[in-house]
């Protein structure tokens, strides 16, 4: 059977960026395994929950983008190999080796010891916001909170935080500046290059002057049989830096909008703060920051829902569509903090399950909890439909700006 590809222009519009869930519902119903054509690359999207879980553990779908076919060029472009060759884009046993080393840096004692510092950062950020009665919550809170936390964990000096944040935000907001595509690509490539140089120098400094931080721990692990090569240290550091703040920042923004546009659930959470852990999980299911899992490659012809996915195809597991599957979640488009805790896949599934889940949950609970406590009358400064979001083609679902007002 010949498949008719869906043009990306039908999915990746401003309307889709504002609310992709009606389109996801149509795909689940009419084309649960959907070939999509876009400007960057063609792919197959998997949108139903059970199919998504199966695909995330399917060994025929490889995460290794750096084999002979060099799929990374199609996905990331020709200048990205230096930063993206990490455990996220690898298969066992390579992935197993790298994850074992990195997991030592996320030891529970290290993360739990960070709790007072996360609370301190949250309070300091809110101290600057509270007197003004208004804020741009992405710039003032959601982005700096996880960035400051991951920078301190990695051992990035405070004097360098703004520089590093600047480079990562150029990469994060690619496609939203309004500049011609050539200028946009050049800016991203320059940011990647500068960040690579910076992290290379930082790893060298940490090797010569180790401290109590993640980069030093990775170096020490490597030198004591961990087998993390010099060429792997910088991409691993980049992955931890970017993954350690990007999705948490976008989650905080998305969660705030969900709360402010669902006043019944916001009131419920004010009345019963003990619901916060369940609320965080429901908010992640409801509007997660990573709509599509990182790309996989079909290593052989395979079939899902009667659709043949040819060998060499890029496959995207649409996490946010799966997390709204009515076969898995009753009334999935309704935010419900008293929902029975189902196994959402907002943190992934299988061997690539999010390594930083404990840190992300801690930051979310402390951050959202503090917003509710210190800004009890928080509300949007503009209608939700006017909020500026990342481009629909971005791998992340998040906000460019989140203007809010409250009683000073």
UniProtKB/TrEMBL annotation:
GO terms for molecular function: heme binding; iron ion binding; monooxygenase activity; oxidoreductase activity, acting on paired donors, with incorporation or reduction of molecular oxygen. Belongs to the cytochrome P450 family. InterPro entries: Cyt_P450 (IPR001128), Cyt_P450_B (IPR002397), Cyt_P450_CS (IPR017972), Cyt_P450_sf (IPR036396). Pathway: Antibiotic biosynthesis; vancomycin biosynthesis. The lineage of its organism: Bacteria, Bacillati, Actinomycetota, Actinomycetes, Pseudonocardiales. PANTHER family: CYTOCHROME P450 YJIB-RELATED, P450, PUTATIVE (EUROFUNG)-RELATED. It comes from the Bacteria. Keywords: Heme, Iron, Metal-binding, Monooxygenase, Oxidoreductase. This is Cytochrome P450 hydroxylase. The keyword Oxidoreductase applies. Involved in the coupling of aromatic side chains of the heptapeptide of vancomycin. It comes from Amycolatopsis taiwanensis.
